[in-house]
Amino acid sequence: MGRMLGRLAAVGLALLAAAGGVFLIAAMVRPRARPAVEILLKELVDNPYLEGEAVIATAQLANLSEAPVEIKAYHASCGCTEIRFPFGLPHRVPSKSVVPFQIVIDTAAQAGARAFVVHVIYQDATGQDRMASVAVPIRILPGLRVRPPSIVFSDCVPGERRSCMLTVLDGFPGDGIQMEGLKVSSSSQLVTSVRKVGRPDIVVETAEGELRERYIVHVECPVGARPDVQAHEIRLTAGTRSIQLPVLCRLAAPAYRLVPESLVVRVGSAGGNEYREVRCIGRDKDDWRIEVAECPAYITVVTTELDHQTKKIRLSIDTRLAASATRTKIVFRVIGKTSTELSLPVVFEGS
To answer: What is the rounded distance in angstroms from the CA atom of residue 103 to the CA atom of residue 297?
Structure first.
């Protein structure tokens, strides 16, 4: 009898465990409750948009619950997105009602496939803060572009004029930017001409989308005496898009230079010779030589060649004869592919 009661108890426990599993599975597959608030977005019929064009999306905040909710705050995923509600906050939304609002997106410099997200914070009937979100998917065609994005003239010589070409591109459909819609200006009158590309079907693939070559801008820049401090700029404007291109000139490195560029020699009453070593370094790979063009009688100069690009100059200075001088200079003449003269200042200091 006791054994039979034990079996019945075991069977009962097994049935209870099975029933608990069924209830657990039922709880797991129970559909998630619908949120109290949803944001409904009206389809953007003008998609894709042109870069720089303002996008205004119409949306509705729908309270689907049986109780009123209160909108407490809202924010967007980036600063280029503005949310416009027709009321201030906080705002009470009755049950089973909708509230229209606008999402305004600034598409400047936003080319490509984008998703602008809007979040609305509300308080439900239980007093808990919840959030409803919606993404506004937009495809933005790239607008005005220019290649190269900056101009750097290297190896400049003061007094010469350097020139280059700029290519203006856009991702607009059809004929793109028209000549009357493109404004090109510059400091120092750098732009000499703007002409339309003969083949506007040239397509350049970029991460932002397809770009088409539209115009060629010819630039000519005068190199001043100090081109490293010249401030030139070219500005291109089309619609709401504007691009500034810096124009820089960099001096050419000298073909030959002395290292060091000057000497300081101490002279004393006891007399004697002071010795110094200077090197002349050249960029020419061809043969070149250096000779003395001007030198005081109390300085002896001996030059030797270290390699094709370096000459060693050894100076012997008679400080007794140089005692009455405060400064002088030695002028070297370099003869090679490009010939020039180099001056070496020498300053004398008393003991």
So the answer is: 86
Long-range interactions of 246-249: CB distance < 8 A, separation 24+: 246/150, 246/151, 247/150, 247/151, 247/153, 247/186, 247/190, 247/219, 247/221, 248/150, 248/151, 248/152, 248/153, 249/153, 249/156, 249/162, 249/221, 249/223, 249/224
Q: How far is CA 342 from CA 75, 281, 332, in A?
A: 68, 11, 5
* Residue 235 backbone phi and psi in degrees, to 5: -120, 130
- What are the tens digits of pLDDT across the range 21-52? 444 444 444 555 678 899 999 877 677 888 87
- Considering the entire predicted model, what is its pTM? 0.57
User: Residue 177 is part of which domain span?
Assistant: 145-251
Of 200, 221, 251, which residue is a domain's last? 251
Q: Residue 170: inside a domain, yes or no? A: yes
